[in-house]
Design a protein that fits this description.
Blueprint: E1 2-11, E2 16-25, E3 31-42, H1 44-61, E4 66-71, H2 74-80, H3 92-105, E5 108-112, H4 119-131
Parallel strand pairs: 1-4, 4-5
Antiparallel strand pairs: 1-2, 2-3
Length: 136
């Protein structure tokens, strides 16, 4: 079963209080699972990776056999495509964990979506920050 994962990380301050959001959807656009969690104090890029990893794990738990991962982080998308090297030491293990999670599911594609088309994942991340009193 092919599932689409929309993921977004948020950090209020960089670094600052951070959270992740992910929405796992079927081909009809129905949300089958969601992730909305605080992850402590970190950078936005770390939050973006952690959101993607959590979303892929949620899709795997639902029995996905292939994944379409959609992110509004051009950095993560370009690193996964091999267009950018992962130079930041904090991102290297997260990059490896994301690739491992994707490959554990099966065939996958990764693509960039404009922030306006990633509203659900963004809302989930911000809801977690608000619950955790991450301030605005």
């Amino acid at each position: 079963m092919r599932l689409t994962v929309y993921a977004d990380g948020a950090s209020r301050g960089n670094p600052g209080p951070a959270a992740i959001g992910a929405s796992v959807q079927n081909g009809a656009g129905d949300e089958l699972a969601s992730v909305s969690e605080t992850i402590g104090r970190t950078t936005n890029n770390v939050a973006e990776y952690k959101a993607a990893i959590a979303g892929v794990h949620a899709a795997h738990d639902l029995g996905a056999t292939s994944i379409e991962l959609r992110l509004d982080s051009e950095l993560v998308v370009r690193q996964l495509a091999g267009r950018y090297r992962v130079k930041n030491a904090a991102l290297k293990p997260l990059f490896g964990a994301l690739v491992e999670a994707l490959e554990a599911v099966g065939p996958y594609t990764v693509g960039h979506v404009p922030r306006a088309r990633n509203k659900r994942a963004d809302a989930l991340a911000n809801e977690a920050l608000d619950r955790g009193r991450g301030g605005r």
